[in-house]
């Protein structure tokens, strides 16, 4: 029979082994106004609910270029010369300050809107900021990737790490007090792998690492997005395409308003007007954007590696050559097609890999579960209604991150990234 002190000790040891609870934000107190995850993903946060951030004219920033893969000048057609150098953006403070690297999301350029939002947020808080394109963007694939076959997360992280070291070397006089790292969407997944790599390489010794809306299972996330394109939309048949229907709605909206001002406020107003889109139309719009990113990846990877799956290997591409037929062919290849036709064969040949399931496990957060569970400097911010999450993903995040997971009830996929509540939480995390 247990004595009371022994029983208390036993209970204490059992409770110590349980994961610390995640910070689940209550929907009523959160205040984010868009309850539709499709709408939130597209329109993001209404301008009135965003933080006050510095304007571009108040930021000391410039774009720079790195020549990391000189052989690409010979591998790429002559009219691809603009992407033989990798460009990035650096915003610098006047004196000594912490530096934060931002890794963009799937297919995103270093100057994409979400990356710019994060730049303004952190610059306004006193950080040097470096904006990097995603390893899945055509410019990174062309100018920085060794294989030009993104999707092996550890290899993508190694490419990013080389870029980060090259950036630091290009600015030896930049006075940096500490290094931080943040990534959103696919960039969040990449940030996790870069952080784990830095634990071994010790080039930066990142002080804080934040993953915003990362995919947990890479295959689940891309499959969710690919399926959105297959959504059945009322009014669309063989004679009326989805984009024709979209243009008709926009035309009616502009006719009613009497103006054209393409900005976030307009998009918010449009989505709530009489011409608002149905959930099915919103889903297809999100899926279409992702399909374009997938097509970019498939086309660029095939072209650089001369695989002949989309562009014939001997086809002469010169300045003025139309690439439209090849991009149309690439649009017919979704991300699953890219995985099976290009990424999986490459992984098997290069890494002596096995099945698709094994590759997906190694490319997903699962592969880093032990590291992430034990690393107090890595945190996650995610949304319960994120479109890229699948069964079991939130459970994995809770078990792995515990109290380092902040789970918002709304926001879709990165739709609340520029909501002032989220912005304050990000700054609080990086301040420690």
Account of the 3D structure:
The protein has helices spanning 4-16, 27-30, 37-43, 72-75, 113-124, 138-143, 153-170, 186-201, 218-228, 242-257, 264-271, 279-305, 324-331, 335-351, 356-363, 369-374, 393-401, 420-431, and strands spanning 23-24, 61-66, 86-91, 97-103, 128-132, 176-184, 208-212, 378-383, 405-408. With 432 residues, the chain is an alpha/beta fold. It has two domains: 19-217 and 356-431, Rossmann fold; 226-342, no CATH class. Strands 1-9-8-7-6-4-5-3-2 form a nine-stranded mixed beta sheet, with helices on both faces. The radius of gyration is 23 Å and the shape is globular.
Strands in their spatial order, largest beta sheet = 1-9-8-7-6-4-5-3-2
Cα distance spanning the termini: 46 Å
Would you state the CATH class of the largest domain?
Answer: Alpha Beta
Shape descriptor reads globular
Contiguous low-pLDDT stretches (5 residues minimum) are 1-19, 232-247, 257-263
Approximate strand percentage: 5-15%
C-alpha-based Rg, rounded? 23 Å
CATH H-tier superfamily of the largest domain: Alpha/Beta hydrolase fold, catalytic domain
Number of strands: 9
Helix content: 40-55%
pLDDT averaged residue by residue: 85
Number of helices: 18
Structural class by secondary-structure content:
alpha/beta
